[in-house]
Amino acid sequence: MVTDFLIRPDADGDRAGIASLLLAAFPTSSEARLVEQLRKDGDIVFSLVAVEASDVIGHALFSRLRAPDSALSLAPVAVAASRRRRGIAAAMIEAGLERARAECWAAVVVLGDPSYYRRFGFSRKAVRGMSCRYAGPGLMGLALSGSGLDGPRIEHASAFSSTGDSH
After folding, report:
1. How many CB atoms lie within 10 A of CB 145?
2. CA gap 137, 135 in Å, rounded
3. pLDDT values of the chain reduced to their tens digit, one per residue, 167 residues
């Protein structure tokens, strides 16, 4: 059964729903703490929610990278367990990438399942040769403009290391 949902920028009233969603979607509280720290540090560029009626059923966060400075990080992405496999995460990611292009960001970096994120154009090739604390098979990039990912390294906002998680 397909449900009707709306994707929109998050609002102050969504914060409790986002926190509850992240706490339920992940095995630890690291992602919920990451989002709060990114918010406190002012590193969130934009945050999207999927809502059904008034319930937050999905969340996708785009934050600024320290390097390269024209790129974003996509993390975390979560959908309520009862709403998964209905295209909600994909719709949020596509909406976020569209917004990032419209705002003239050069690239987006993600750490995730390559077989999933390839469908959006993410690739290991885009980050080849760049050092990153989270280097590994799940680190991928997507160029949104001609310059794409340039520079010797990828450095996430400090909140990523302060939560103790391995995004």
Report:
1. 12
2. 7
3. 345 899 999 999 999 999 999 999 999 999 999 999 999 999 999 999 999 988 999 999 999 999 998 999 999 999 999 999 999 999 999 999 999 999 999 999 999 999 999 999 999 999 999 999 999 999 999 999 877 888 899 999 999 987 654 44
Number of domains making up the chain: 1
Assess if residue 1 is contained within a domain: no
Residue 87 belongs to a domain: yes
Beta carbons of 53 and 5 less than 8 angstroms apart: no
Is residue 36 included in any domain, yes or no?
yes
What is the rounded CA–CA span in Å between residue 107 and residue 21?
A: 27
Q: Look up the domain containing 127 and give its range.
A: 6-162
DSSP-assigned letter for residue 147: T
Report the CATH number at residue 85: 3.40.630.30
- Domain assignment present for residue 167? The answer is no
What are the strands, taking DSSP E only, across the chain?
6-9, 44-52, 55-64, 71-79, 107-111, 131-132, 139-143, 153-154
Backbone angles phi, psi at 4, to 5 degrees: -85, 130
